[in-house]
Amino acid sequence: MSSADLSERASIILKALVERHIRDGQPVGSRTLLEEAGLPVSAATIRNVMSDLEERGFLHSPHRSAGRVPTSQGYRLFVDRLLQVESIDQAAVATLREQLNPDKSASELVQSASSLLSIITAQAGLVTVPRPDTHHLRQVEFLPLSGNRVLVILVVNEREVQNRIIHTQRPFTEVELREAAALVNLRFAGQPLASVQGQILREMKEARSHIDSYMQASLDLASKALDQEESEDDYLVAGESRLLGNISPEDLGRLRELFDAFERKKDLLHLLERCSRAPGVQIFIGDEAGYEVLGDYSVITAPYTNGTRILGVLGVIGPTRMAYERVIPVVDITARMLSSALSH
């Protein structure tokens, strides 16, 4: 099963077969490969090489077809040893540079990165949202709305502004809300949001018996505001519909399972967490990801940073027969550009 002793002829034939299958999505036969590979050999010789590659686990024959398609192991050998990565299109670079603008907030940048990955690669793009421990409270404001509703304006890190509405047990005056915001800012500005919420809950529990109503109301407002932060999405997915483009009717069931996995999030988050612990581009082909639902798909990821620490992971999910030579550099440069924007 080792690929170390694969002959040059076998490598050329495997490379030609994978590239043809990626383009056409059909099993590739010996006569097609005879023309595709450009080798001075007979079709019988190519059939013998294909049989050997199949025995070693790099190819398989679907539906008793005379042609072969790559296995996950065949794609892995192709990506690791035979792939020639293309230069990224300059128009795509210009789009990335324009959209991943440092003047945007972190949440806007993450959303843009997810959409751009999908558009440029024609696959599904995903980006994990920066973990709450990377968010620091700079300032909070509370503004009264009608009824028992309050508009919360959170300024996070340097300039990211988040607006949300919370519901309270009673209406608050503008003066009460201004005083509550002043208290929260005085006590908690500059601290991680997750840490702030923990401190607030502890203070409310420990001091409930002797805390004054002003302090209680302020901490209650802050707790509700930050609890909304915890409920945000763990990752963003864009372009799921693009996965329908080249799918056959018999594969629709597997695609539904993948869409269900997008909703459940647990498995994909575990995989992305693994990716965040390794530098550079990571490629999981088929069952290498460790999840049955990804058996017919590949995941290509790269971590992004704020210049000093890893904030999350971005990447692409698509069929195993994706154009790796184009997708890999797009994922790499998008991660670098997103990191640069967040660093500024």
From TrEMBL:
GO annotation terms (biological process): negative regulation of DNA-templated transcription
TM helices/strands, residue ranges: none
Molecular function in Gene Ontology: DNA binding
Keywords carried by this UniProt record: Repressor, Stress response, Transcription, Transcription regulation
Heat-inducible transcription repressor HrcA C-terminal domain mapped to chain residues: 108-328
Magnesium keyword on record: no
Function: Negative regulator of class I heat shock genes (grpE-dnaK-dnaJ and groELS operons). Prevents heat-shock induction of these operons.
HAMAP family (UniProt xref): HrcA
NCBIfam families assigned: hrcA
Stated family: Belongs to the HrcA family.
Protein name: Heat-inducible transcription repressor HrcA
Source species of the chain: Kineobactrum sediminis
Lineage: Bacteria, Pseudomonadati, Pseudomonadota, Gammaproteobacteria, Cellvibrionales
